[in-house]
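Protein 1 of 2
SEQ + STRUCT:
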Amino acid sequence: MAETVTPSGTSSDAAGTLLTSLDPLLRTWLPRQRWFAGKGRPVSGFTPVAATELLPPDGRLGLYHLLLRVHQPPVPGAPPEPGDCYQLLIGVREALPPRLAPALIGHVADGPLAGRTVYEALYDPRPAEVVLEALRTRARVGGLRFERDPRQEIREGLVARLMTAEQSNSSVVYGDTFILKLLRRVVPGTNPDLEIPLALTREGCPRVPAPTAWLHAEVDADSYVLAVLQPFVSGAADGWELALRELAKGEDFAAEARSLGRATAEVHTALARALPTVTLGHAQLRPLVDGMTERLAAAVQAVPALRTYEEGLRSAYTALDAVAAEGRTWTAQRVHGDLHLGQCLRSPSGDWSLIDFEGEPARPLAERRMPQPPVRDIAGMLRSFDYAAHSASPPAHAWARACRAAYCSGYAEAAGRDPRSDPVLLRAYETDKAVYEAVYEARHRPDWLPVPLSAVRRLATSDPT
């Protein structure tokens, strides 16, 4: 750290006083953040989980790390919840320069920061570089533990810049060398976004950037994974943006889809070696089928447009249950859990990487870490091709079919088995994904509802090809 300051943890009393002074500002600011999951409901209060002073606010700049439990009124008909825990980095200045205006949280009226301005610190290179220096030196600050792989070097002086395209988390790039993913909504326990890349690194799998450093917090008996630093693939193209660009130009994407299928299979193969697998017979598969059926029933109530297809969609699940009842078994393993084109990067050399192994953040952590049939990831990617195709007008259905076929062929080349050779399992998982999408779009993006409904019509038949 550039300033000769010894960071220290903040006592619980001081944390409470600090939070009391920030409370009215955060109630307004938090719901406006893209990564805040509780939109549509007011914030009714906060409980401090941990507060750590990284730079004391006695000079031009202060920096606090906060873990806050956010309380909101329960969703109608749902039981009360303890509230989500969020990670915040709060910068403190006398006044903000114009370049930091988008980061403003507000002006503190009372408490230890009275008269100061507080803001989202990741917009400011200096606080972001404090975090990198703490990782480089493996600092211990209060309950925060900054760790790194001793075999990897972190150079000093890397300039930080915030990436503004993030949704559920925040990312900072350091000198086109590293990228730090800061998790926003955090839960105690082993986070797959660190666990799986570490396991793949031990297996020597090149399809996932190896973690360089990571941040976790010890709070009472709980451990939280808070951030992961990985090499930045300079010049890489996001799979979603690449697909849309090629589609807009009328270019074929099948070769890229095939290559991405091979990359997915390589990751699955390495994960099956690195982490335990389980065999799914009828008894083990039945809870999965029941879950799909329950989600469909709830979705039909939430999205009336699904009612016409309910019987056909349910047949996808009953068909899978019937095959399992006949004695068929499947292997389940750790998977990505939320795979789509936006979770893939193509380097300038043409190699594909998979990123963001956090899984669906709304799902419980234990569920995200459960072994699953690899087809769950495959179904997610197939649905992603459909979404890309609907960006064209009219929708490029033939383009999507070609990408889907090429992706499965590429997967088969690397895995030795084609996902299409088990059509009952693939249909069930793709149906479950499309039903989830229909609910999401109906609630958040009604204009997009025709995209999953197009798949629903196809999947509701006994032969969805």
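Protein 2 of 2
SEQ + STRUCT:
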Amino acid sequence: MTQSDVTLDLNDLLVIREDNKESGVVTLTLNQPKQFNALSVELLSAMQTELDNIAQDNQIQVVIIAANGKAFCAGHNLKQMRANVNEAFQRTLFQQCSQMMLTINQMPQVVIAKVQGIATAAGCQLVAACDLAVAADEAKFATSGINVGLFCSTPAVAVSRNLPRKQAFEMLITGEFIDAHTALQYGLINRVASAEQLEQVLQSLIEAITVKSPVAVRTGKNMFYKQLDMNVEDAYHYASEVMTCNMMADDVNEGIDAFIEKRQPVWKGY
């Protein structure tokens, strides 16, 4: 399926893609509101296709993951999982979901979750996997698999890398909801706004990123995730090498000259 095919009825699309070529921003909207945007095999496949295509496009700087309906994402599609109770299906499903989450981290663009409603289980994982997240003050978050006898093991990977240890484990072991302000306090999201102001807050964050050098942003995202798993000594060695290479970029010369000359830089990009 080509998600951007204008001849298709948008209501038939699992994921709606909207490109703003002038700003270098793409929005991917989960479009299964009646299923609370649950991550079915089909929805995961549609998302993976879009993310893979976007990752290859140097003109795109920021990706927004949003959702239609009351829920941002209710996690995996439990009805589909229950209808396929065999080990091979379950293993493939979780590997497919994990690959999508990894793609978000590994693609060069900055990925921002725009959370308008509940985000539970793998939906909470999706928020945690994104580089940044903004949420409406009415949004709620939970890793609720434990309530049906299933510990949220794959969501735990992303959640435990965002939240302090005890707060992450409390969410995982109790399945209880936290509100948006608590999620902000814990570090799961970056900014909270009223539903009416959510788009304005999101745009402010986008603009703060897109005015920067594309070279610096892409270099920075890649460096940030790689150094997280290193010990401090190795991280400093790696960071020094990255900065050395970054200094050779034309954009750095332009940025420094613009700073000295008290003018806005004109980035050359890639």
